[in-house]
User: Which sequence fits this backbone?
């Protein structure tokens, strides 16, 4: 009797185990047959921001730039400065954001790095990649943040930061550009802001030029927002002492060129640089400024740049200014991961020597 009960018991156990095995096999079979979908962690949860990728953002928003901009503080909180910088770099390399957006985001990230007291560990973020990323936007933002908040000893923070940056700076160039932006925003007077720039200089190996250019860049943006015409900006530059003409005209910001600017608007801005009575320093610097902005605008909406026909009839100095300024911006984009067609630009110049020089400049 007992042996019979034992057999029934073991039979039941065996059948239960068999059912379990069949259930596992069936579920596995169904998982292989069912299309897999990527599940984003619950929105706004810590895990969501810790693991956030460009793929996630693309699924959540039609505008990657606006999403990163609007959620920047939360992303920094969970991914830190280097994490959000990598996210921005990935967005640029994939063509989800353009150079205008990339520089703006990099500037905002740098500003947060200073404002959130990350400055105590800023040396951890001063890598070759960050220093030269998207036109030095991160570095400009750090300086802007330090100068804006004017903590006790902010000048010493700027000096320390400058010493960290200078050995690595390639696209960035020089110190205190971001501080110039901050001074102009604070005092709303270019002459006073320029005077504050001069107070930063404590050694002969660093000049005020980059700080001046930050002041001029901020002021030119203000003038364009007020509806000032291109000629008004050139009049302002010409009204300054001659030693400041070049610095001022280099920061015309392309006369307000944006990714939405049309080819005809860009051509008119280029013509405005040279169709004036001002000296060659202003014409050359203006042409550089507009060429830089024009390059970023055109490559934000298409794959290559073809120069306007009138460029080829300019005097050699002005034609080469346009060529090398455009080539420098193309080169910057390529170094930041862009996959644009650059050779067609260089090869569009009729002069063979210009073609060779342009190609060699971009490749070196």
Assistant:
């Amino acid at each position: 009797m007992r042996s019979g009960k034992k057999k029934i018991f073991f039979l039941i156990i065996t059948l239960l185990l068999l059912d379990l095995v069949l259930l596992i096999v069936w579920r596995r079979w169904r998982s292989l047959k069912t299309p897999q979908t990527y599940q984003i962690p619950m929105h706004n949860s810590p895990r969501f921001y810790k693991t956030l990728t460009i793929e996630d953002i693309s699924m959540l928003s039609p505008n990657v730039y606006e999403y990163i901009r609007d959620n920047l503080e939360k992303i920094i909180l969970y991914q830190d400065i280097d994490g959000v910088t990598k996210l921005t770099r990935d967005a640029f390399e994939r063509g989800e954001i353009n150079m205008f957006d990339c520089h703006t985001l990099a500037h905002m990230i740098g500003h947060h790095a200073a404002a959130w007291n990350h400055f105590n560990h800023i040396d951890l973020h001063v890598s070759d990649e960050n220093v030269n990323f998207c036109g030095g936007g991160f570095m400009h933002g750090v300086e802007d943040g330090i100068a804006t908040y004017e903590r006790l000893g902010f000048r010493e923070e700027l000096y320390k930061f400058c010493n960290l940056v200078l050995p690595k700076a390639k696209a960035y160039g020089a110190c205190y550009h971001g501080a110039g932006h901050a001074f102009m925003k604070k005092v709303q007077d270019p002459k006073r802001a320029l005077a504050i720039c001069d107070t930063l200089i404590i050694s002969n190996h660093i000049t005020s030029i980059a700080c001046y250019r930050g002041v001029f860049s901020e002021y030119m943006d203000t003038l364009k927002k007020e509806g000032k015409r291109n000629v008004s900006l050139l009049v302002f530059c010409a009204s300054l002492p001659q030693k400041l003409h070049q610095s001022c005209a280099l920061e015309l910001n392309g006369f307000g060129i944006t990714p939405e600017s049309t080819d005809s608007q860009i051509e008119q801005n280029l013509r405005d640089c040279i169709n004036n009575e001002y000296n060659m320093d202003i014409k050359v610097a203006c042409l550089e400024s507009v060429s830089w902005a024009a390059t970023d605008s055109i490559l934000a909406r298409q794959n290559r740049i073809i120069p306007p026909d009138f460029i080829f009839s300019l005097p050699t100095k002005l034609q080469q200014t346009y060529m090398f300024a455009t080539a420098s911006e193309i080169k910057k984009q390529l170094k930041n991961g862009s996959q644009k067609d650059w050779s067609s630009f260089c090869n569009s110049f009729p002069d063979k020597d210009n073609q060779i020089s342009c190609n060699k400049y971009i490749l070196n």
About this structure: Residues 183 and 196 are 7 Å apart (CA to CA). Residues 45-154 form one domain. The chain has 20 helices and no strands.
